Amino acid sequence: MSTVSNQSAISRRQVWSAVASMAMCAAMLIASEFMPVSLLTPIASDLRASVGMAGQAISISGLFAVATSLIIPSVTSRLDRRHVLAGLAGLMLMSLVLIAEARSFEMLMAARALLGVTVGGFWSLATATIMRLVPEESVPKALGVLYTGNAVATSFAAPIGSYLGSVIGWRGVFWALVPIVAINLVMLLVTLPPMKTRASQDGGANALALLRRPHVSFAMLAVMLTFAGAFEVFTYFRPFFETYTHVGVLRLSVLLLGMGLAGFAGTYGASALIGKRLFHLLMALPVALAVVTLIMLPAGHSFGAAALLAIAWGAVNAAIPVAWSTWLSKGVKDKPESGGGLMVASIQLSIMVGAELGGTLLDHYSIGATFLSGAALLVLSAIVVGSGRRLRPAV
Does one domain contain both 109 and 72? Predict the structure, then answer.
């Protein structure tokens, strides 16, 4: 799996066009996955389901993402990665059409399951594909571009979805995404070079077998603690701002938009620092996120303070996936696709666990308990990372 041979076959312009196409695909995935959150009530009403049932239909994509991320490297081991990624984009397109046309709760569930397959497959292969497209020294920069697509969707999907939903209806919102994803599918086919993989190189490996490597086991533990802590807090920002800061819908939208826009700065900053400070960042970022989370509890009653802290939180949080993707490109260099699958499974599981834990604490105690628990998980992840020695592969 030689990056050098790939580079000699295609121009630098095509390489970065391919990276841009993948960034667009990442943005469409994030938008498709999280857009329903802002449309949950009308979806539930239209399909004659409870809001809780509609929420289950949304979360089912995470379960299918976990399963897909663990098996896709071996299932697609002999297939051209260009065709696999385009096929996953095609599944996303099909999912959006089915969601827009869903006339029953069951159809919505099936469509979300298809989207979960795309989410698990794309993110499992993304880092390995970037490693094959660009020279090793450009990998952090390319990953930064990829996660810029993530930041764009995180910033704008929810507010745009909420607004358009009131104008053209929730089905219209998903129909509006269909032509954009179709264009992205064509772009992937045009810009990505052929990338055939031999099973012996990576795809035949069992992702779970990588846990036998001590540095991978420690890394996955740190990943799960980091993302569980982050999403335990992130999932319940709305009730926090409503009860602590006492904001209405307009100010809440401003806070969430500011948090999302700050992700651009976090992504750029991580890309700039990560080359020489990777392990420092892996340890420092969750600590910084925990500190900001804890400061929110006493300071969150002021809108101005809450806004500044939300921006800081968004910037730090956006840097975390860039850092861990860069670790993957270095720590599991010989099995990047299997490693990517394992990381995606770990992240998706931790997101579900973090959201569930946060909700339980919120229901039985308070939003403060949710934030304290999330901060504790983030600090534990930093302890696991330590100096970074545990995360370095054995020589």
Answer: yes
Average pLDDT, the chain: 84
Domain that holds residue 89: 1-204
Token pair, residue 234, equals 């992130």
Give CA–CA dist 95/368, Å, rounded. 37
Number of domains comprising the chain:
2
**CATH number of the structural domain spanning residue 20:** 1.20.1250.20
DSSP state of 78: T
Q: What is the DSSP string of 266-284?
A: HHHHHHHHHHHHHHHHHHH
Q: What is the pLDDT of residues 231-244, one digit of tens each?
A: 888 878 877 888 88
d(CA 75, CA 68): 10
Q: How many CB atoms lie within 10 A of CB 113?
A: 19
Residue 48 backbone zone (phi > 0: left; psi -120 to 50: alpha; other: beta): left
Report the C-alpha gap between 278 and 334 in whole angstroms: 19
